[in-house]
Amino acid sequence: MSLPTQPYKGARDFYPEDKRIQKYMFAKLRQVVESFGYQEYDAPLLEPFDIYAAKSGDELVNEQLYSFEDKGGRKVAIRPEMTPTVSRMVAARRQELAYPLRLYSIPNLWRYERPQHGRLREHWQLNVDLFGIEGLEGDAEIIQVADSILKAFGATPQMYEIRINSRNLLEKRVKAAGVKTSVGEAIRFVDKFEKLSKDEFRFKLGEVVEKPDELYGFLTEDGDSEETKNLKILLEKSGVTNVRSVYSLARGFDYYSDIVFEVFDTSPANNRSMFGGGRYDGLVGLFGAEPVPTVGFGMGDVTLQNFLVTHRLLPDLPAETDLVAILIGDVYAGAQAALANLRENGVNVAVDASDRKLDSKIKHAVKSGTRYALFIGETELSAGRFKLRDLTKGQEDELSAKEIINKFTKHP
Amino acid sequence: MSLPTQPYKGARDFYPEDKRIQKYMFAKLRQVVESFGYQEYDAPLLEPFDIYAAKSGDELVNEQLYSFEDKGGRKVAIRPEMTPTVSRMVAARRQELAYPLRLYSIPNLWRYERPQHGRLREHWQLNVDLFGIEGLEGDAEIIQVADSILKAFGATPQMYEIRINSRNLLEKRVKAAGVKTSVGEAIRFVDKFEKLSKDEFRFKLGEVVEKPDELYGFLTEDGDSEETKNLKILLEKSGVTNVRSVYSLARGFDYYSDIVFEVFDTSPANNRSMFGGGRYDGLVGLFGAEPVPTVGFGMGDVTLQNFLVTHRLLPDLPAETDLVAILIGDVYAGAQAALANLRENGVNVAVDASDRKLDSKIKHAVKSGTRYALFIGETELSAGRFKLRDLTKGQEDELSAKEIINKFTKHP
To answer: Least packed by Cβ within 10 Å: which of A52, A134, B51, B56?
Structure first.
């Protein structure tokens, strides 16, 4: 009986053509966030179960967490999000670290859920966090970074909308409407405002607050609070203009403490929240350290890739391998210096040293998807000039090693 | 009660200064293996438990595997090694893929074991695999790649030794000595030849084979088999010279089918196997596909870093952030164009837009470890020239934006 070849449900195998897309996306993410002074960190995939139980929200902990006991009897979880981890790390060095502290990471995250469009069990998520800035310029910077990322991929402001809200204000209004169960539950329900039908929302709102009509009236207003107004002004100054205030916006996690934001894909094909974040000033304090004002966001690779595909923003990505060097005759030893020279100068060379016929070697090079073939025999080695064949166009040039190197030099 | 701030036992937090080292190592690994025509792949962290049960070896499966049941009742494992995964992926597309197929990955791997020098529960491991070459030139290429990696980090052949063996030959000799329990167990014991004392080894050898003296005699020979002799010739042609044949070398995994190799750190401080690999022709076949000749190796980040540190091969790595831009006065809006210009041209700029005093801002910039501070006020913006202070040397220059960009351009 043979083993199955599919990947685990809700997770992906990345063959080189898939991995190239991810590498392209991650390189651009790194480039943009580093340009804003953020530095990369990382942490273990496994964390103590308790750090999620504390603040992440019930649905995530009870239903979506991959948790188990390790062989030493510790209750651990595969991280479903990075925010508790980065808070733990900042708490561990609360005094030594310099603020404002700008950190980012692209962790691998897991959630047990029914796989669907844009949501898988395994994904990667850019996490960008700014520690130590209490004022709105912190929130503005984080939103500016998110906006700059999309623009760096070639997105125009028409392709997405940035929605902001003050969770503080929302909490006040929810409390004023008379909470029936808990504030947290009421707020998580309010977050469904845009997803449910009007009627269904109004009906169910009555189950979580005493005065649903009053709260509903507030949620349908299209105004700005003092805070979101000021945030918009800061964002406009830094060139971020497609911002809208949405009173019902809450975000799922319990730990958000004030401004929250979400970036919506405006294309009819997706038309949904792509990613978001907000202020979570209290989380570092959970680890026994003095709290630190914090604002951040997370952006998943699956939704980002969907966005780029929908808006045709993914370029054609060339293979890592520049050429297949086809050895002709007994030149294995003689060719090594030439190959090393190419490789050390940045040309990526796969060698075909097999004793297949030349025709068969070329056929295999074509099948491999490599664009060029380079022929190396006795004659070429003694002359120092090599035939380079473009396998797509069939065109052939005779080049020196130096000319080959120049042709394939990657410009940054 | 507050949550603990330590990372999970046997795993590491990577603060930016730690992550930089890993990024440096991984970038060089990618550069070298891609220069040999290898392309990156990736796969899910979780795999079905069964793919390890099949061939990885008992110790790993019974004692070291992080395995559990998911919420749907599937028995899964966090991958402890990448070889079964890449074999699964090749099997899934056995017919479509072009051979020779060159693949690499740097997966995150987990093993439950007592953390010790050079061995942690979580590590990353470069995996390089070559599919479709039956002959020794495949084994030679893989060893050449491993050797080129160490040289690319600046290692000299005196710092390490490459040990090779034919597991085929070893198996024949073990069988000829009369196996008492199983061939696998006997071979795993033989692998301890260099770790145990002579007396202990000879004594215990009698527990696994009928004729221990005969086998012991063979193991102490310092000769070459036909195969290792030919492999050495190929390696010498490609400039790999520090190679030694070791008859007792076996490698832990059950799936190796012929040539195995290990790279030893020769420094007295480490003096042990750093990493290795070999031929495992049978693994793809376990997934119901036609078997394919395969040779590969894995190189862990922990041992690699130890090697680089011991031999003083780690360079000083600058922080990702080039400078802190200190805003003076009310220039938040006015400074945005200048900042965007720097960032889009590859300068990594953290902004201090706080209303702290100038002295305090400078102090924080110094504490953050960023090398330079750039002062931006009304005067600077209208003149188009900015003071750039080297915070290490205290030296200050007045530069245009273009001059700043030139100064910080990263050359590849």
So the answer is: A134
Angle at which helix B212-220 crosses helix B198-208, to 10 degrees, equals 130
**Do A155 and A238 contact (CB within 8 A), yes or no?**
no
Confidence of residue A412 (pLDDT cuts 50, 70, 90): very low
Last residue of some domain: B263, B284, B310?
B310
Interface touch B47/A368, C-beta < 8 Å: no
* Rounded Cα gap, residues B187 and A310, in angstroms: 55
Are the C-beta atoms of B127 and B104 separated by less than 8 Å?
Answer: yes
Number of domains in chain B: 2
Give the pTM: 0.94
DSSP A212-228: HHHHHHHHH-----HHH
> B63, B69, B115, B107: which is closest to B85 by C-alpha?
B107
Say which of A54, A70, A349 has its CB closest to residue B3.
A54
Q: β-pairing, A101-105 with A122-131?
A: antiparallel
Residue B50, min C-alpha distance to chain A (Å):
8
A296 lies in the same domain as A327: no
Among residues 49-88 of chain B, which lie with CB inside 8 Å of chain A?
50-51, 54, 63, 66, 68, 70-72, 74, 76, 78, 88
Count each helix (H run) and each strand (E run) in chain A, helices first: 15, 17
A276 and A404 inside one domain: no
Q: Which residues does chain B have within 8 Å of residue A34's beta carbon, measured at their own beta carbons?
A: 320-321, 348
Q: Which two tokens stand for residue B20?
A: 């930089």
B214 and B110 within one domain: yes
Q: Which domain holds residue B339?
A: 323-408
Report the Cα B314 to chain-centroid distance in Å. 15
Contact B364 A91 (CB under 8 A): no
Would the CA dihedral through B33, B38, B39, B45 be positive or negative? Answer: negative
Q: H-helix or E-strand containing B407?
A: helix B401-408
Same domain for B328 and B301: no
Name chain B contacts of A40, Cβ cutoff 8 Å.
16, 19-20, 23, 320
- On chain B, the residues whose CB falls within 8 A of the CB of A367 are 98
Instruction: Report if residue B304 sits inside a domain.
Output: yes
Please report residues of A whose CB lies closer than 8 A to that of B26. Answer: none
What residue type is A342 in one-letter code? L
CB contact under 8 A, B5 and A88: yes
CB B310 within 8 A of CB B269: yes
CA-based torsion, A90, A92, A93, A95: positive or negative: positive
- B270: in domain: yes
Burial class (CB in 10 A: 0-12, 13-18, 19+), B397: middle
pLDDT (tens, 9 = 90+) of chain B, 412 residues, equals: 689 999 999 999 999 999 999 999 999 999 999 999 999 999 999 999 999 886 656 777 778 999 999 999 999 999 999 999 999 999 999 999 999 999 999 999 999 988 887 789 999 999 999 999 999 999 999 999 999 999 999 999 999 999 999 988 999 999 999 999 888 888 889 988 888 898 999 989 999 999 999 999 999 887 888 999 999 999 999 999 999 999 989 887 677 888 999 999 998 887 788 999 999 887 899 899 999 999 999 999 999 999 999 999 999 999 999 999 999 998 999 999 999 999 999 999 999 988 889 999 999 999 999 999 999 999 999 999 999 999 999 999 999 999 999 999 875 4
Most B CBs within 10 A among A1, A30, A33, A45, hence the mutation to make, goes to A45
Beta strand spans in B250-404 (E): 259-265, 273-279, 294-300, 323-327, 349-352, 372-376, 385-390, 396-400
* Token pair recorded at residue A186: 């009421």
Burial of B168 (0-12, 13-18, 19+ CB in 10 A): middle
Cα separation, B326 vs B351, in Å, equals: 6
